[in-house]
Specification:
The chain is mostly helical. It contains 9 helices and no strands.
Length: 250
């Protein structure tokens, strides 16, 4: 086929049954199911305790729905060839079109899920701590604005790095993303992660609890935040990653 050397054709033909899409599906299924289950438990606990549904619960619902969108998009990319060798996927050019469209949708849902998830945590902190702590209230507003600005920037990159938008899945390929854009957005995302996780720590340490309880509360906040971030972030990272032993996987 055009664009492939004889050696590449021979190698990919001999390994045509290799498919890492199954791993993507397995990872996506486990973490999405865990996130949905956690949300259901959260709402059931609210009902049992007869507590009212708060803003952070609604934001968490939005994040969970968006995560399901990420999961569905990831399944579609696997269906159309993500995880297989390029030569195998190229046997039907429509596969690249479908992968491109699914990846754009995945990116949108990923951004929404990350943003709503962080805003949910911030709304929770605001509800629990800010009435008695001005510093946390200010921190919540700062990181809320920061998170929304990050989301807008990320969505703009998704829609503007390829003009027209159809260049993401069509020919000619007219995408000129600066090499620093995605690493920069990633770093900015990490900054908000760290800031949101650190925000309640000083308040927790000032509570009149025993030291083990204070450490336990800090641990719960940090593990909860990291688990949420990892469960959402690993899906697009997995899709965009190349195999370590072969660079010709989609």
């Amino acid at each position: 086929m055009e664009g492939f050397t004889p050696e590449e054709i021979a190698y990919e033909t001999s390994h045509q049954n290799e498919d890492r899409g199954g791993l993507l599906i397995a990872i996506s299924s486990v973490f999405t199911a865990a996130a949905v289950l956690c949300f259901i438990i959260r709402i059931v606990a609210r009902r049992i305790s007869q507590s009212r549904i708060n803003l952070d619960d609604y934001l968490s619902l939005g994040a969970t729905i968006s995560l399901i969108g990420v999961y569905t998009s990831a399944l579609l990319t696997a269906k159309y060839g993500i995880g297989k060798h390029v030569l195998i996927v190229a046997q039907d050019p429509e596969n690249f079109v479908n992968i491109g469209k699914s990846t754009i949708v995945l990116g949108i849902f990923y951004t929404l899920s990350m943003t709503l998830g962080k805003l949910s945590v911030l709304a929770f902190l605001n509800r629990i701590f800010s009435p008695s702590n001005r510093a946390i209230q200010i921190g919540v507003w700062i990181f809320s604005i920061y998170t929304i600005a990050w989301a807008i920037a990320q969505l703009l990159v998704y829609f503007l790095e390829c003009r027209p938008l159809s260049s993401n899945w069509g020919v000619p390929y007219q995408c000129v993303p600066p090499t620093w854009v995605w690493p920069t957005l990633g770093i900015l995302n990490i900054v908000s992660d760290v800031g949101i996780l650190v925000l309640p720590q000083l308040k927790i340490m000032r509570l009149h609890f025993s030291l083990p309880k204070k450490i336990g509360l800090c641990f719960v906040f940090m593990i909860g935040g990291l688990a949420t971030g990892v469960s959402i972030a690993r899906i697009p990272l997995f899709i965009n990653a190349n195999g370590a032993d072969s660079v010709d996987f989609t």
